[in-house]
Design brief:
The chain is α/β, with parallel strands linked by helices. It has helices spanning 15-24, 40-46, 57-66, 85-90, 111-117, 153-176, 185-188, 214-223, 288-295; strands at residues 7-11, 29-35, 51-53, 74-76, 95-99, 107-108, 122-129, 139-146, 197-198, 230-234, 237-247, 257-260, 263-267, 272-280, 286-287. The strands form 3 sheets. It has a 7-stranded mixed beta sheet with strand order 3-2-1-4-5-7-8. Strands 10, 11, 12, 13, 14 and 15 form a 6-stranded antiparallel beta sheet that branches.
Length: 300
């Protein structure tokens, strides 16, 4: 394990970054945290290291012309701001980005959600040397993770944060000692397909299209559990579906809800979903039995 006296700079701004920083601070001395103004207080509370807030690449470049960090390397997780080559070159050992997929699969903004949406059985963490091109840097290491059938974005995120932390603790000392060598993604990746790309989700992604197959909608429910949530209407009632399972039955038309043996079903483009839990607008998340007791008269 790296000596606690060795310092690193941390780049990160989202909730994944905050949880990752808390774990890294247990084993590394954090010299400074580079974050966004909206998360400055949160990041400052995690470690005693000074936190610097930046909004853009321009502000980031300016920071690194006026500040003297001594860390040989930086770690970047969930940052959300483009980092210039000048900032990358500031660190003798570069910036190591922990990306939550098996690169070159799911480059881009939201690899965890798209891993679930795709129905793939395995994902993981890639430790990559940062370059200006999006997620195209050479790899220092990868670690695989098997996706459970009922995995949600929330549960998968927790598991990958831990896997990322373990990987950094193992690989960073080797990289600092020149005992690890970066290699091109396509030559060593645990993923053998062509590069694929994720994107930021928008609110409209959460509006359920019942013409889709039931297995695809079920994946969306798990993938969108935090944002943008799987939204639909049951007659005039707005609800969010929070868990469901595929069943091999179907009636017409798509989007038709019906009750059978005190269970709630909805017909899809192929097969149907049994709704297990859901959240009516302005109410708490509830099991379908409680929902039917209170709102069963809305289903016709």
């Amino acid at each position: 394990m790296i000596k606690k006296l060795e310092k690193i700079v941390f780049f990160g701004s989202g909730p994944v970054a905050a949880k990752s920083l808390a774990l890294l601070a247990q084993d590394f001395t954090i010299e400074a945290v580079i974050t966004k103004p909206s998360t400055l207080s949160e990041m400052s509370a995690i470690t005693d290291a000074p936190a610097y807030a930046v909004n853009s690449k321009i502000e980031l470049d300016h920071l690194f012309t006026d500040t003297n960090f001594i860390s040989p390397v930086a770690i970047l997780i969930d940052f959300g701001i483009i980092v210039s080559q000048a900032v990358i070159n500031y660190f003798p050992k570069g910036i190591v980005n922990s990306h939550f997929s098996l690169l070159p699969q799911w480059r881009g903004a939201d690899p965890i959600t798209f891993s679930i949406l795709s129905g793939q059985r395995q994902t993981g963490v890639s430790l990559m040397l940062l370059v200006e091109a999006m997620d195209e840097g050479p790899l220092l290491a990868q670690a695989a993770y098997d996706i459970e059938p009922d995995e949600t974005t929330s549960s998968l995120t927790v598991s990958l944060i831990e896997l990322s932390n373990q990987s950094i603790k193992q690989i960073l000392p080797l990289w600092l000692e020149d005992a690890a060598q970066p290699v091109p993604q396509e030559s060593v990746s645990l993923y053998s397909g062509k590069p694929s790309y994720s994107r930021k989700l928008v609110k409209e992604d959460g509006v359920i299209n019942w013409d889709k197959p039931a297995n695809q909608i079920e994946r969306e429910v798990r993938a969108y559990i935090e944002w943008p949530k799987s939204q639909t209407m049951i007659n005039d009632l707005s609800v969010v579906i929070t868990s469901a399972k595929v069943v091999k039955k179907q009636i017409e038309p798509c989007g038709k809800f019906w009750v059978e043996s005190k269970q709630l079903f909805v017909s899809c483009g192929k097969d149907s979903l049994e709704i297990l839990t859901l959240k009516p607008a302005g109410k708490r998340d509830m099991r379908v039995q409680a929902f039917l007791a209170g709102y069963g008269n809305r289903i016709k």
